[in-house]
Every structure is written in structure tokens, then in C-alpha cells.
Amino acid sequence: MSADENTPVGWEQARELAYRAGRAAPAGVERIPLAEGDGRTLAEPLRALTALPAFPTSSIDGWAVRGDGPWRPVGRVLAGGTPPPLAADGTCVEIATGAMVPEGAAALIRVEESATGADGLVTGTPRSAPEWRLPGEEAALGEELVPAGTPVDPAVIGVAATCGHEFLAVRPQPRAAVLVFGDELLTAGPPGAGRVRDSLGPQVPSWLRRCGATVTSVAGPVKDTLDAHLDAIRAALDTADLVCTTGGTMHGPVDHLHPSLAELGAEYVVNTVGVRPGFPMLLARVPGPDGRPRFLAGLPGNPQSAVIALVSLVAPLLTGLAGRPFRAELPQVEVAAPIHGRGRDTHLALAALDPSGRIATPVGHVGSAMLRGLANAHGFAVIRPGTRAAAGDLVPFLPLPLLPGERA
Fold first, then answer.
1. Tell me, what's the pLDDT at 408?
2. How far apart are CA 378 and CA 348, in angstroms?
3. Helices marked H in 99-163
4. What is the sign, positive or negative, of the torsion defined by CA atoms of 200, 205, 211, 213?
5. Under a CB-based contact definition with an 8 Å cutoff, are residues 62 and 44 in contact?
6. What domains can you pick out in the chain, each with its CATH number?
7. How many whole angstroms separate alpha carbon 14 and alpha carbon 62?
8. End-to-end CA distance of the chain
9. How many percent of the chain have pLDDT more than 90?
């Protein structure tokens, strides 16, 4: 396993490397009922099983007519039926919206633009534009409706149902496990007597779910020994595509993550990223017993740094594993106050957006060990290496992961 901890990878490059690693990992296909598809990702293009519409369909309530008027009614066509042809000029049938237009009909007349005389004959003037949908107007048989890699939402489910699908071919949802390292951590009660309350074990699973993963397990605190680390990582890798560890990413006397990765034959995708806060973080590819690689993301122990590692490495990786497109270019926002740079590193500065979503105000309490600022922010203003931002400047903005349907 090669690694040079003294050469941090640039933040933007690290995001791209994480995404590529996930996208390159082999993935299967699941076929699931339409009702279970919301939030998943199409593994194959969604194609029309029939022309849409499958038959000429009335867009109005009114009359289907043949020949010149006035017209003699000879029946009624409702949605769901197959009407006989209109065989004779001067005849018409009453027709409902969504009903199949009978063969032989030359035009449709809206009910509100027609009249029925005492003799029972219908009069009216058809509009110049046809009042029905033609077969294949929306899609031809076999046409690609939605490409592979598209996130499934209610609209995708609706179009799949419209053309006859009962199942969707989707990418398997990435499975993630969380391991909390650190003998000094408490899992209940207030901190004290040299011990601190673990805040990452409770929050990391929720961030992972917002990034599209299914969380299979949360374990820890794991004892600060190499054997305990190895046992915990191996057990987590048995059920997960990705293991997120918290703490232990340095090279101190109780930091056993790097030796564990060496023992497991892992290969670094990214080892150390030039971003502040967030030092040090890593992403490694671990050989699986079935030949399919797994991944381990080492998150720093400081809470804000850990979340920055999540949005920098884990979110792009999961996007790749899910087979979704990666949008490296971020939206621009105007900063309401100056934000300093961090020298040769990228600075991710916690900020809150105004209701328009276009102006970002830096928040307070943003130390790498603090969470108060994170709880009041919508994401991070990105200050590139060697720069700073003055009030009024436009900078990229990285939103925090959101639940489906949420807006920053």
C-alpha cells in the first residue's frame, strides 16, 4: 500500500478521485416494484414498452365527427373502451377525454362549442388544431425515456407505469457501517473526568443515509489496540460496501488505522487532503473475499472535521457507487462578510444561506472540535487555496447533504 502523508491531495481532486473509485467498483442490478423505487438510481435506461399514447386519444369532452355536418349521433365512447369505426359521413359519437378516437373520425368538436338541435343533429365547428393525441406523440415503442444513472423520483415512477412497467432496474443501494474509535469516549451522559461524549456515532449514520447509503451497523467505541481495530474492521466489511471510521487517522501511539489498512492489504485512494478543517482524512480500497473491493473512509475524530471528510470523500464515493452523475461544479453564492483563506489548503467555511439561497453569511463557533456552527449552517463556502473572500465576492458553495425533497 503506497501513501505519502506529506503530500496532501487538493480538495477538488480528492472529490473527483473518490467519485471515480466508486463509479469503477462493480455493481449489480436489482429489479424492484415501482412502489419501492423512490430514491433509488436507475441501473438501465427506462424504455417505452409501448408507443405513448398507444392509440389516438381524445384531449377533450365532445364529439368525434366524420364528413360534413350537421352530424347524427350513433353512439358514445368512454375512456377504457374500444369503439367501432365511424363508417358513414354525417355521423358522430359522443366522446370523453382520454377515450380512444374511433377509426374514420375526421375531427373532434368540444362540447362547449357544439349544439344539438331539436332534430337531434349536432352542429359545431372543429378547431384548426387536432384535439387528440396521436400514437407515439410522447414516445415511440422502445424509445429511451430516462437514462441510466437517473435518480428515481415520483415522476420517473409515473412515466414507468404509464408505459407498462411493473418493475424498475436499479443499482443496489450502497451499504455502510460505522466504527467509532477512542477509549476516551462516552456513549451516554455528560462529558467529564477527562472523557468526552461521542457525537459522531449518533450523527454519522444520518449523514450516510442522506448521501444515499443503507447503514448496516454502528459499533464502538472500539478499544485502542491493533487487534481490536482489525477485528472490528473485518466484521464491518462482511456486511458493508463502505466502512466509516471515526478518529485514529493520525500516526500517534493509539492510532491503529493505518497499520490496520496495511494488514488488510488496502490501497489508498486518497491519503490526506489539503482542506481545513478536515485534517487528516483518508479513503482506501480494501480487497474483498469475493474479489469485489470494499472501501474504508477514515474520518478525523474532531466532529466538524469528520463531517467535512464526509462531504469531501464519502458523498462523492457514494454517488459513484450509486451510479449517479457527479457534479463537480458547485453553485455560486455571495458572501456577506469576509472569509480568510488557509494558505495552500482549501478552506471550507461554515455558512448560512438567506431565504433566497444566494447570500451566505459565515457562522460562529466553527472550530474543528465544535458542532454548534454546523447546527446553524446550510453548508460550506469554498475558499480556494491562496485566496480569501471579501464581502460581496462570489464563491462556490457546498451544501450539506439533504433529505429528498429538502431545500437548502
1. 46
2. 12
3. 154-162
4. positive
5. no
6. 9-27+172-321 (3.40.980.10), 30-51+137-170 (3.90.105.10), 57-133 (2.170.190.11), 332-399 (2.40.340.10)
7. 62
8. 40
9. 80
What residue has cell string 478552506? 347
Q: How far is CA 281 from the centre of its chain?
A: 24
Q: Cell numbers at residue 331, please?
A: 453553485
Contact of 325 with 149, CB cutoff 8 Å? yes
Please give the torsion angle defined by the CA atoms of residues 220, 225, 230 and 235, in that order, rounded to the nearest 10 degrees.
-30
Give residue-wise pLDDT tens across range 379-401.
999 999 999 999 999 999 999 99
Give CA separation, 328 vs 58, 275, 300, 316, 319, in Å.
45, 16, 23, 9, 12
Read off the C-alpha cell for 408.
Answer: 437548502
pLDDT reading at 152 higher than 70 = yes
Residue reference for cell 343533429: 121
Q: Write down the number of H helices and E strands in the chain.
A: 8, 27
What is the model's pTM?
A: 0.83
399's enclosing H/E stretch is strand 394-399
State the CB neighbour count (10 A cutoff) for residue 290.
7
Do the beta carbons of residue 174 and residue 212 sit within 8 Å?
yes
Q: What is the pLDDT of residues 98-132, one digit of tens each?
A: 999 999 999 999 999 999 999 999 999 999 898 99
Measured distance CA(88)–CA(104) in Å, rounded: 8
d(Cα 218, Cα 86) in Å, to the nearest integer? Answer: 69
The residues, any chain, with a CB within 8 Å of residue 202's CB and separated by 6 or more, are none
